[in-house]
Amino acid sequence: MLEVKNLVKTFGNYTAVDNMSFEIPDGKILGLIGQNGAGKTTTFRLILDFLTQDSGVVLWNGHQLSGKDYNDIGYLPEERGLYPKVSIQEQLLYFAQLRGKSKKEIEPKIDEWMEKFKVKGKKTDKVKSLSKGNQQKVQLIATLIHEPKLVILDEPFSGLDPVNAELLKDGIIALKEKGSCVIFSSHNMDNVEKICDHLVMLRSGKMVLNGKVHEIRESFGRTKVFLESPLPPEDILGINGVESAVKRSDGVVEITLNDPKAGEEIFARATQFGYIPMFNQQPPTLEEIFKMKAGEPNE
Amino acid sequence: MSKFWIIASDVYKKNVKSVSFVVMILVPFIVMGIIYIAGSVAGGFSEDTKVGLVSDNQELSKQLAKSKTDDYTFKVVTSQKEAEKQLKNKELDAFLVLDTETEQIQGKLYAESSLGTTTELMMGQMLNGLQSSLNASKLNLTPEQLTSLSQPANFEKTKVSFDEDGKMTTGQDNTAIQSAMSFVITIILWVIIITYASIIAQEIASEKGTRIMEVILSSTKAQTHFYGKLTGVILVALTQIVIYAAAIGLGYTQLKNLDMVKGLLDGLSSANILGSFLYFTLAFFVLGILVYSVLAALCGSLVSKPEDTAKAVQPIIYIAMIGYFIGISLGTTDPQNIVIKVSSYIPLISSFIMPIRLASETVTTAGAMISVVILVVFGLLLTMFSAKLYKSNVLVYSEGGVLKSLKQSISILRNERKK
After folding, report:
1. Which ranges does the record mark as transmembrane (chain B) (predicted)?
2. Mapping DSSP to helix (H, G, I), strand (E, B) and coil, where does residue A77 land?
3. Can you tell me the ipTM of this complex?
4. Domain containing residue B77
5. Contact criterion met (CB below 8 Å) for A145 and A69
6. Which domain CATH number covers B60?
7. Distance (Å) from the C-alpha of residue B239 to the closest C-alpha of chain A?
8. Contact between chains at B218 and A82 (C-beta distance less than 8 A)
């Protein structure tokens, strides 16, 4: 269980992290989203004790993170890097040894992990001979092979194609099922939405969103309607509480509401002549929320 | 195995197995081999230099033509024109026109290319000899008188010291052999420092540049990593020293009966070189390597990209160069110079200068001791400072130079300390 309480970090006059609090129970995944410079990496560095906070505490299983906990950590920094001239196997063994594992423990697992992430190449291949995507997978294996209890992944999906992103998602979910605490940052809201239990959004170091993914979405109200009906957009715009209605190229009209209640009126009008193929009233997607929140002026 | 040793042994294995290490080890042996082969082969191949001799004095010419040296032989040629023709046809390598008509012998050597300083020097000496005997016969001197004229004066130097009662005692002068040793040691120190400064800086800069450092910092303490790296590289240096020591030892047992080596060893009787001179010199040598390694590690942790390592090592090379050149230039010509006296106490350059001052015996044991203490204290402070700074250094990716990065990480360190 990771607890972050009232964390504040300033660099000179600049507040990088402003009163941040959240907790991740064992076996849960927290997604940290925010624009570039919002304070995500600083948050990770504070949790890892690379930086010292001005105030607030980070507690891991009830105590402050110390040297004894290093072996339980798996950390993937945002900027990727491996030793280019060293073989995959030596690399993985070295990092695992630094996490307190013995060569004997890790060696038999390497094949399994390489298979799991579908790394192309032999374990005796030097890292520089691998493609960028494969190097990234090797680094992910290095982050996870010692089965860490606290997993911190800074932008793990960046640079991965959808197939590999799916492999990574499976990997993260497998860790969660084994009871690890996972925290990761991402720009890809789709990934966040699918695997996160909990979501924190940062803007200029402040938490602007904090909660379960579906709760956050619902809190914005079901202000989106996707409608496929004979009703023309002009008529919809006349309804009270409708902000915009745009017909997409596939014929679906995308309606944004000021008031979710307007959905009832739209439904009634659209179905007055009987069957329609689609009426779907949704809260805004995370991506929309992200854009909305990122665009808000600072208080 | 503790994480410290995992890091140290990783650095050690990586470097010892590298091609550049093997090459570095082999280079002195290869160079020695080449010198040996060049020396023995060259002797067999070099041809006698044929020098034509043009002179109006026939008797002298014949006499000179008979006297053969290892370097050249004279061949009497009748006229300068004939000599020019033979030189053109490569029958001669050079020709000497000798004019003995006046009281001063005049020799003019004509050659297309230099005959080498040895040959030219020998010819000059030969002519000097001729001049002397010519002068002697003119003055009606006997050969004995001539010899006594050219007798050199006897000049000896004696090293003295004063005991507690102010009584003067003479002692054996070891400064020559000590100077030679201090030179050899400072050269070795210089080579080791420039080699290992780059290795250690590269080792750290590449990890920082590839961002592996962040992963490592989440696995172990920054200090552990810093000391582990340092220890690994120092072990590599130690390996190199041990290999050379073994080679010298082996060479000694194999070659100790050769005349040349025997002659060398006679001068090097152990009493001459043992004692405080050697101990202090070795202390400066070892401490020098350690302190420079720490400095290199610090500089390596300040760069953002591995490509910038050379830039980071430059200040270290400059410092070492200053010490080295002050040592070898002023050390021999002017050992009492104030610059050399002061600089022999300044850490980093004292390692180069103090051994030379010790060799010329212009410093007391107490002086050397003070300098060692200054160096040790400086080394410890630098190491602790570097290890502290290391954690903030590796998170600073500044585009500016080394100094700018240093400033930035010191401010981070201060910032962190306040809290």
Report:
1. 21-45, 180-205, 226-253, 273-303, 315-332, 368-387
2. coil
3. 0.80
4. 49-141
5. no
6. 3.40.190.10
7. 22
8. no
